[in-house]
Amino acid sequence: MSIPVILIEMAVFAVLFTIICFKTTGGNNTTQVENYPHDIQEEYFKTHERIPTASLSKRVVITKSIALIGFAVILIIMALLAGASTFTQGFLFAFGMMAWIGAYDTFFIDWVLFANMKRFRLEGTEHMDKAYHQKWFHLKGMLFPGLMFALIPAVIVGLIVMLIR
To answer: Looking at the predicted structure, is the pLDDT value of residue 158 above 90?
Structure first.
């Protein structure tokens, strides 16, 4: 596998992920409202129609499934371009990329941009500075469900790489 290609792909993946985050959060955009801290959600739903945010609600399952398929497609292409040729290489590549994007999301998107940029604030929660700076909320979300979620596209990528190569 090519390390320079992997490094370029890491940067491209971060850019794509950032664009997706900007397009799906903030204002009245509720695409990722379940990823906001619970006190922010409660404040938002005081003045807006409540939508399901439980992990196993139909809306969240559909949203996460779409993300899962999107990540898998992107990661399959990236793994093949990087030269993955076995299940193990495809799996480790995809899991590593998901871990990278999880760290990038937590330490940069969530802790820096989400916490400080008003464009990420849900309408009616602009005054909740402390709630938007909850580092532990984002870190624990990346560590448990985030890394568990990463296993699914990693297995898919590993299987596709194994079948193609």
So the answer is: yes
pLDDT score at 165:
79
Q: What is the CA radius of gyration of the chain?
A: 17
How many whole angstroms separate alpha carbon 33 and alpha carbon 24?
9
pLDDT at 26: 81
Predicted local confidence at residue 138, as pLDDT: 93
Q: Nearest CA to 13 among 100, 133, 84? A: 100
Beta-bridge partners for 27: 122
What value does the mean pLDDT of the chain take? 93
Quickly list DSSP for the chain.
Answer: --HHHHHHHHHHHHHHHHHHHHHHSSBT--TTGGGS-HHHHHHHHHHS-----STTSHHHHHHHHHHHHHHHHHHHHHHHHHT--SHHHHHHHHHHHHHHHHHHIIIIIIIIIIHH-GGGSBTT-TT-HHHHT-HHHHHHHIIIIIHHHHHHHHHHHHHHHHHH-
For residue 154, give the nearest of 105, 96, 80, 100 by alpha carbon: 96
Per-residue pLDDT at 30: 86
Q: Which of 101, 126, 162, 108 is nearest to 26 (CA)?
A: 126
